[in-house]
Design brief:
The protein is an alpha/beta fold and 1182 residues long. It is built from 43 helices and 21 strands. It is globular, with a radius of gyration of 37 Å.
Length: 1182
């Protein structure tokens, strides 16, 4: 089945149908429209509905006809319709029902207008089209008796009031009609299984779903009417099979050990040991199965297939089996009328496929799909209710139950009826006869409706199977959120977890609950109580842990899921079967892995674990894949919090205001190296280093941010005090640990866990939480432990979601002091060497505040040419990487041995996890080739060389002094010369460096870059060195500077550039300035010394080109070229003249002042129109 084609069709069909229904609505409601005369009751009802909610009327009619069209096409293909309604006969082009009518073969009970339209006696613009509309409506009405849920009427009391027929789309016969498109995607092959109807429905509502989720981002709650669109997700067939075969199939095999059903169940996982305590079933008719959120019925239809095999095995007549299944076995519960209708239709089609057309039409049984409806009984009606029910039955329980369904469309199957045995009450109330008392009859109908819903929601089912709605608490509307909090406190965080509780409640004792949902319940602390209840009161029998990429139709990584079967009873000591599919890269690969594991439990991803094993781990995360030795570590060892408690860091609540990248502000305003708060508070600086977590990097680094903590955080504390008046919360946590040395980690990771050593001087963030130790020896030991394979494995158990909270680290098992002494003595020296190596790597790049000089220019690596220098540096980097690799594996070996995990873990570290920037496997990943990685490293190293050259041009750096030279607000050439009196490469005097298509100015950036290359590597080898640079970049120097440099700089400085690009609208003029050297007259310098001067130079160029174009001595080619270049120059002059007049000149007049403390995000937009735009600059800081 081509689901991409189905998706494309369904989404376009929705838009087309809405347009066509809208057109029909306007036409039939127009003054003087024929419909007003011919259908007055229907028009009156339609007009009232449209006045109340026009959009709803249109949406409802559009999906009604979409459902009918898809159903009729499926029935055409499968031979249920005769003649075919929306499909032509083989070799024909018109729908068969129309072709037959044109041949004089009208259906029984057809309206006479059809023949009149076809023979021309009734006037119409398109007689065939009008006749076909009536034929289609006739077919729908004829099928109403057999399938009222799909071919419903708006008002069965008076068909004249049904306006659905009036809104049938007009264009149904053209080659581009909705039906023609439908036939293209609903081919005979695609209609082999009725699940195509479910796929089409999911795709039909997908745009509505996107709208609902867009609203969520704007803090709009999901209303009751939008819950179906927000939560509808069609389940892939392989997952349905796993769930049904391991619940219904397992139950039957337990009761019929000799059954041959197992041979027909490819996804059935046989239990490790025979079971004796199971739910007893006498007959196939006794089995009750429920899907409490049935959607379009996929679980139910496969349950039908399996039940058919069961009945057949029991010897039942094939003609009786479909009716028996529908009468006894299957119940679907749903809040969405559309989905409920599709579920009932799908079950009917299953029955029809087994019975054939004639027997199906004679079958009396209907699918038991209960679509919940809101039912209200105002207090004033209670006397009538009592009269309907009768005094003996009108108990407090019944009264309370009648009030429980006022929000049935909102709460759905989560409602637990107070009435314990509604079926007998339902039988008695339904049997009462109130004669001609229409009022009591209407009340009776509502009471019966509530009792029918309550009966469906009673705890009677042997098997409950579902793919429940996924909706976090933040998305729930107020009433739903309050209901869930009050009734399901242990699972309230998400509806999928609430449905786990409710599904077990629907099960009989020892019944089986099978479900697919989000994996987060297995691990997150918010579900700890739910896990505890499940492990204590129920038994996980099996699980197929899918992880990401299990649903190809929704982009795979969007959800991480797990499917499982749970018994509603606790079997002490029973080990469940778990199949770990999280490593599969696609849905197809996961399917193959699941089937292989079922056939071969020794495959390597099949595990067995009991509740007792899982309970040994703090908070009981469902980490079934660990060994007995691993579980014992948790049982016998204390957690890290007994040694040193991991601490959660600060939350600013406004990063834009309080955080900066350290490169944005004046360096002298940053307080480095303070040992405690008192020292920092006494300092004059405003900004202090801030540990904000960051990307995956071990040992040292991610030191990029600073926080405004002047006067011990006076401003941020005042801000938080004001916030606490409306949003109470502790935002500056663990202040006593500020500025202390620490071992820190990033809260959120995309890969392995990693910690970094932070020396004194840092405040730490909630995303860069930390742990603190008393001694240097403990720092070394625990840094080594936390970066070891042991802790990586432990945290995969404590937080498999890769979201590492302080509480997770608190529970890491720690050896007693006497047991860790030997490991500490070995690890200490190794860890110190690793940290030093990592720090050296971090400081080799400009983004470190301890950067001194470019490694390429270091005496240790510098050679006669740039290429030879790079070769020396690359060899050094490889040595660093190799040594780091060796030391990390030795560190792993030490802790694996100390914890006795030699049988569980190996010391090897993947090369891409050696987190040195100079290691190309880490920097670029290992998916590309080694040759590609080496080329990128060479290119980036040359780019860093040129970037450093620009820094030297502006005076930020110098070839003659280490570290930063000009890095404070307003500094200029005078301050530079005071620090570097005789520079070998002089900085630009006016802080403006033009970046143009040719060397129009003496301080042109390419000219200066060439000079820098000569100064650093000599004039003799200049050409050779320039060739190396351009070969590494893959382009000439000017093209790189004009096309790539600024984007490279913006990326490198993470959208907080320190070099700003003045750029005309079409890029004819570009010039860089250094923001730390900016002065209020800088724009005037750009204007007078460069923009106007460049315009003058272009005027001269134009005159020369015009002269050349007319020069008789010039060749025709020269003249043509001169003419083209003249046109280009004229356009440049026009562009720059306008820009100079409208933007640069007015801006220069303003003499704008900036404050570096405000940061790039606030300062850069002050020059909007003059500076090159930076995409994403305005986005809020994380």
């Amino acid at each position: 089945m081509d689901t991409n084609a189905l998706k494309k069709f369904a989404q376009s069909a929705r838009n087309l149908l809405i347009d066509q229904v809208t057109a029909r609505l306007d036409m039939v409601l127009a003054e003087g429209a024929a419909a007003r005369r011919e259908h007055p009751k229907a028009i009156a009802k339609l007009e009232a509905a449209a006045n109340s909610n026009r959009a709803h009327v249109i949406e409802q009619a559009a999906y009604t006809w979409f459902n009918r069209f898809t159903a009729l096409r499926f029935m055409d293909v499968t031979g249920l319709t005769n003649p075919r309604v929306v499909s032509p006969a083989d070799g024909a082009t018109r729908p068969e029902i129309l072709a037959e009518a044109m041949a004089g073969n009208l259906p029984d009970r057809a309206r006479p207008e059809i023949a009149e339209y076809l023979n021309g006696t009734r006037p119409a613009h398109d007689g065939q089209a009008e006749a076909y509309r009536l034929l289609l409506i006739h077919a729908c009405n004829e099928w109403h008796g057999a399938m009222p849920y799909m071919f419903e009427r708006a008002d069965m009391l008076d068909r004249a009031e049904d306006y659905t027929e009036l809104l049938i789309p007009d264009d149904l016969l053209s080659p581009d009609s909705i039906l023609a498109r439908l036939r293209e995607v609903m081919t005979e092959d695609a209609c082999e299984d009725v699940e195509i109807i479910g796929w089409l429905y999911q795709f039909y509502i997908s745009e509505k779903k996107a709208q609902v989720f867009a609203g969520l981002k704007k803090n709009q709650k999901i209303t009751a009417e939008n819950i179906p669109a927000a939560t509808q997700l069609f389940t892939p067939h392989w997952i349905v099979r796993y769930l049904v075969e391991n619940s219904l199939g397992r139950l039957w095999l337990l009761n019929r050990p000799g059954s041959g059903l197992a041979a027909k169940m490819d996804y059935y996982i046989a239990p490790e040991e025979p079971e004796t305590d199971f739910l007893r079933i006498q007959r196939a008719e006794d089995i009750c199965i429920c899907d409490p959120a049935c959607g379009s019925g996929h679980m139910l239809t496969y349950a039908f297939d399996l039940l058919y095999e069961i009945y057949a095995e029991e010897g039942h007549d094939a003609a009786e089996i479909p009716g028996l299944i529908l009468r006894h076995n299957l119940t679907g519960i749903e809040i969405d009328d559309r989905a409920g209708a599709l579920a009932a239709f799908a079950l009917s089609m299953k029955a029809a496929a087994k019975l054939g057309r004639r027997r199906f039409l004679r079958m009396e049984e209907k699918p038991d799909v209960v679509v919940l409806q809101d039912v209200r009984f105002p207090p004033a009606e209670m006397q009538d209710v009592a009269a309907v029910v009768g005094k003996d039955l009108f108990t407090d329980e019944l009264r309370e139950t009648l009030g429980q369904f006022e929000q049935a469309k909102n709460f759905g199957s989560l409602i637990v009826p107070k009435l314990r045995d509604p079926i007998e009450t339902l039988r008695l109330v339904a049997a009462r006869d109130f004669g001609s008392d229409l009022l009591l009859k209407e009340v009776q109908a509502r009471v019966v409706a509530v009792l029918s819903m309550a009966e469906a929601l009673s705890p009677k089912y042997h098997v409950v199977v579902a793919n429940p709605p996924y909706m976090g608490g933040k998305g729930m509307n107020g009433k739903l959120g309050d209901f869930v909090k009050a009734n399901y406190p242990d699972s309230k965080s998400d509806l999928f977890a609430v449905f786990m509780e409710r599904a077990l409640g629907l099960c009989a004792k020892r019944g089986l609950m099978a479900m697919i949902n989000m994996q987060s319940w297995m691990f997150l602390s918010s579900y700890e109580k739910l896990r505890g209840t499940l492990l204590s009161n129920a038994t996980i029998l099996s699980m197929a842990h899918i992880g990401e990429r299990g649903f190809d139709t929704i982009g795979g990584v969007v959800v991480s899921t797990t499917s499982f079967v749970i018994k509603n009873a606790h079997d002490e000591g029973r080990r469940g079967e778990f199949i770990r599919l999280v490593e599969g890269d696609s849905e197809r690969e996961k399917v193959l892995q699941l089937r292989e594991a079922i056939q071969n439990p020794n495959c390597g991803w099949f595990y067995r674990a009991s509740a007792d094993d899982i309970a040994k781990i703090p908070s009981s995360p469902i980490v079934y894949w660990q060994t007995e030795r691993f579980y014992e570590l948790f049982r016998t060892l204390n957690g890290l919090s007994q040694i040193a408690k991991p601490r959660q860091g600060a939350t600013t609540s406004d990063n834009d205001r309080f955080l900066r990248s350290w490169t944005e502000v004046s360096c002298q305003r940053i307080g480095f190296g303070h040992a405690n708060r008192a020292s920092a508070a006494a300092a004059a600086q405003k900004w202090f280093p801030y540990n904000k977590g960051g990307e995956f990097r071990r040992w040292y680094g991610n030191q990029e941010f600073i926080i405004n903590f002047k006067n011990d955080g006076e401003e941020i504390k005042e801000f938080h005090e004001e916030l606490n008046k409306t949003r109470p919360g502790g935002r500056l946590k663990n202040q006593d640990h500020y500025f202390s040395q620490s071992v820190s980690w990033s809260k959120i990771s995309t890969g392995s866990f990693a910690v970094r050593y932070f020396p004194e001087g840092f405040i730490f963030d909630v995303a860069g939480s930390a742990v603190f130790f008393e001694s240097r020896e403990d720092f070394s030991y625990f840094t080594g432990l936390l970066n070891s394979a042991v802790v990586t494995s432990v945290l995969q158990a404590l937080s498999p979601t890769l979201n590492f909270e302080a509480e997770h680290l608190s529970k890491i098992p720690v050896l007693p002091a006497k047991n860790r002494a030997a490991a500490a003595s070995h690890a200490s020296g190794i860890v110190e060497r690793i940290i030093n190596c990592s720090k050296a790597d971090w400081d080799d790049y400009e983004t470190s505040w301890d950067f001194t000089t470019l490694p390429l220019l270091s005496p240790d690596h510098r050679a006669g040419t740039l290429e030879a220098s790079y070769a020396n540096l690359r060899a050094h980097w490889q040595d660093m990487t190799d040594e780091m690799h060796r030391l990390e594996e030795e560190n792993n070996r030490i802790f694996i041995d100390a914890y006795g995990l030699q049988d569980e873990l190996t010391p090897e570290v993947p090369i891409d996890e050696i987190t040195l920037t100079c290691n190309p496997a880490y920097r670029y990943g290992v998916k590309n080739t080694e040759e590609d990685r080496e080329a990128r490293l060479r290119e980036d190293t040359v780019a860093e060389f040129l970037h450093y050259a620009v820094g030297c041009m502006f005076g930020r750096y110098s070839l003659d002094a280490p570290g930063l030279i000009l890095a404070n607000e307003g500094e200029g050439i005078e301050e530079y010369l005071a620090r570097v009196p005789e520079p070998s490469f002089a900085p630009d005097r006016d802080n403006v460096i033009p970046v143009l298509d040719a060397d129009w100015f003496v301080d042109d950036i390419v000219t200066r870059a060439r000079d820098f290359l000569r100064v650093t590597f000599g004039d003799a080898k200049f050409r050779e060195n320039l060739a190396f640079v351009e070969a590494a970049l893959g382009k000439d120097l000017r093209k790189w500077f004009t096309k790539d440099f600024f984007d490279y700089h913006v990326r490198r400085y993470k959208k907080r550039p320190i070099y700003w690009m003045f750029s005309s609208p079409k890029g004819s003029f570009n010039a860089l300035i250094y923001m730390h050297r900016y002065r209020p007259d800088t724009v005037s310098v750009v204007l007078n010394q460069y923009v106007r001067e460049f315009i003058h130079k272009l005027e001269v160029e134009r005159a020369q080109l015009e002269k050349l174009a007319l020069d008789p001595a010039a060749t025709p080619a020269q003249q043509t070229k001169a003419q083209k270049e003249t046109t280009t120059v004229i356009k440049q002059i026009a562009e720059l003249t306008e820009w100079e007049r409208d933007v640069v000149y007015p801006m220069a007049q303003q003499k704008i002042a900036i404050d570096l403390d405000d940061g790039v995000k606030r300062n850069y937009p002050l020059f909007a129109g003059a500076l090159k735009p930076i995409k994403g600059l305005e986005a809020a800081d994380d």
